Amino acid sequence: MNHRVNKEMNRIVKQLIRDQSKDGAWRYPFETGIATDCSMIILLRTLEIEDEAFIKELVERIAGEQQEDGSWKLFHDQKNGNLTSTVEAYYALLYSGYRDRKDKDIQAARRFILANGGAGEVHQFLKIMLALTGQCEWPHFPINIEVMLIPDTFPINLFDLSVYGRANIIPFLILANTNFRKRTAQSPDLSDLFQNREVRLFTEEQDEELRSLTKWVKQGINGLKSHGNLRELALYRAEKYMLDRIESDGTYLNYFSTTTLMIFALLARGYHSTHPVITRAVQGLKAMTTRMDDKLHCQYTTATVWNTTLISYVLQESGFAYSSSPVQKANQYILSRQQLKYGDWAIHESTVLPGGWGFADLNTFHPDIDDTTAALRAIRTLATEQVDYRQAWDRGVNWLISMQNKDGGWAAFEKNVDKKVLNLFPVEGGQDLLIDPSTVDLTGRTLEFFGNFTNLDFHQPMIKAGVRWLLQQQQTDGSWLGRWGVYIYGTWAAVTGMIAVGISPKHPAIQKALTWLRKIQNPDGGWGESCNSDIQNQYVPLGDSTRTHTAWALDTLISAATTVTSEMENGVAFLVDRKEKDWTSTYPKGRGMAGSFYINYHCYEYVFPLLALAHYQKLTDGQLLTGEERR
């Protein structure tokens, strides 16, 4: 078996080295379905930008994803098509001008939409897009723009929202408070898709719940004192918030949705569609496009830092020296992406210097905990030998330590942004948007970093608090729920994290998790989890095994083992014999927003199988790679 493992590791590594860019980074696609492709067509047509070759390519990709029943899906095993995705695609294809209502595929999409409740039943974010592009009236929104002026000392304020939620909601506040609408001569008429003429963001019950929450907000607004025009001041402040966070590529925080909303918000503020800020923003969005099987895709963001930190680390875990050429180049890129600016995170933790890493190539404003631990794993050896890496290491570790939440866990972006009262705000997917609480996967991976790459263990109060929080989150079946990858991912992060800091593999919680993993192993030796787990809030098997899910489960078993078990052997055989079905390689392994979009990280098919196989070789005293012949 060790020989077969070594052969598979070599195959993966050769592919990784072929795919490395000249600057040392890996630019694998960050794929999130068709939503961004559809939004890009709608945006370009609304701005009357005639980039026909670009639009035609997007049309081809969108049309190619349509199902036989006329719908579009979020993932392979979604039993029925997704209404929101289908309305998005229908709108974008008609607006492109390269499809018309007489096309049989368009007619099939229309039938699906009407049979499933019509356009008035789509996700809230699409309702907003339909309203601002003139396809329906603006739904009632109860919060005034003056919320921008509430000081951060007030019990509920904008900085109680997650950085991601805040970034999206601020341009939305401008749009909703101005009822901005923009139609063009090419706008299709979607009025026949609205079976209920009134489009609502919230149900009547939700409106009632909102009244109690918005009372606090209105109290804060009413307490503001100014001799000027509060509304105009608030609009100006919202505009300035966005403009102050434009990255070098022209995007607003390197996210597709925030940048698109910013463009529309600036139009609402009187900017012309050819204003340099808008032009640069559109160019920035187009620069984030990627190709997959020669098809164009508008990425939600780039995953370059994440890809590169993971791959540098896993190459070193598989035997490559830190001085080998691929690792050297990667680490130079990683060092150049450490963030040295203060961002919104400093509002909640003002006593520490910047030092984290972000997810995207050009992200300089909002570092995150997961990318920071990944970067630190990659540069760990260089930090003992070179001054610049040591300085980066110290700043990164200090920032990471300072970001621990008061409950003992770690969140994605900021510290203690976890006021649960905000979850009463009825935003679809709000638990993934409005607050930034401690999560199992972030906490587990942070503990794993501290345990394996520093001298910190469970005797330290900080680590002890993290372990205590993790143990409290375990599900009754023994699994843990991960924010960015659901149950197998969350269990992998929790177990490997606790073992790294010295918790015994015999601990009842860990044994319960291992029993659960063995129970859900497939007959082919692998593991596979459906995105339906996210929607149903319980583990749902995919029915087929994937390389990524198998690697997470296998690595979990290995981390708690002293000898090889039959479950491990079967998992390893699945990976080295490449038993997976072709479609599973493109199946989303990551959560974006619950029930709304899911993520296919293209690097995962290489990274995590290589990591699990390297750890298997270490457990069995098998041969690792040297990388010498690949310099």
TrEMBL record:
Entry's Gene Ontology molecular function annotations: lyase activity
Pathway: Secondary metabolite biosynthesis; hopanoid biosynthesis
Matches recorded under Pfam families: SQHop_cyclase_C (PF13243), SQHop_cyclase_N (PF13249)
Annotated coiled-coil segments of the chain: none
Boundaries of every Squalene cyclase C-terminal domain copy: 304-618
UniProt name for this protein: Sporulenol synthase
InterPro entries: Hopene-cyclase, SQ_cyclase_C, SQ_cyclase_N, Squalene_cyclase, Terpenoid_cyclase/PrenylTrfase
Transmembrane domains' residue ranges: none
Family: Belongs to the terpene cyclase/mutase family.
UniProt keyword annotation of Isomerase present: yes
Domain of life: Bacteria
Its EC number(s): 4.2.1.137
Domain Squalene cyclase N-terminal: from-to ranges: 10-292
Isomerase as UniProt keyword: yes
Key words, A-Z: Isomerase, Lyase, Repeat
